[in-house]
Amino acid sequence: MPAAGEEIGNEVHPAVDQFFRIEQGEAKFILNGSEEHPVRKNEAAIVPAGTHHNVINTSKTTRLKLHDGYSPPNHPDGTVHKNKAEAEAAETHGH
Q1: How far is it, in rounded angstroms, from Cα 38 to Cα 78?
Q2: How do residues 27-67 score in pLDDT, each as one tens digit?
Q3: Which end of the chain, C or N, has fewer beta carbons within 10 A?
Q4: Global pTM value
């Protein structure tokens, strides 16, 4: 759950599409460094495989809560990251 103003950081998944659903807050999705899309609570975004992307929490006060999924799956079954630090630690270990 990114804090107000926090971002996930630019990333790309070469072989999987990614789906995001915003449960709380609002975000700006930046695709390929320049294409911007605002997404709010109860809205979703799809990032096609090979697209560089970043998600920025645009709220000044509310933590961003989102769910994401991959097709095909990209993480072990049951994976839950409670915050950015957990997600980054998992990436370090190849998840």
Answers
A1: 29
A2: 999 999 999 999 999 999 999 999 999 999 999 999 999 99
A3: C
A4: 0.75
CB-based contacts of 83: which residues, under 8 Å, 6+ apart?
1
Closest of 38, 70, 67, 77 to residue 51, by C-alpha: 70
Query: Residue 68: what residue type?
Result: D
Q: Which residue has the tokens 């998992």?
A: 90
Sign of the alpha-carbon dihedral angle for 80, 83, 86, 89: positive
Tokens for 31, please give them: 């695709």
Answer yes or no: are the C-beta atoms of 92 and 54 closer than 8 Å.
no
Report how far apart, in Å, the C-alpha atoms of 6 and of each of 35, 55, 73 are. Answer: 19, 9, 25
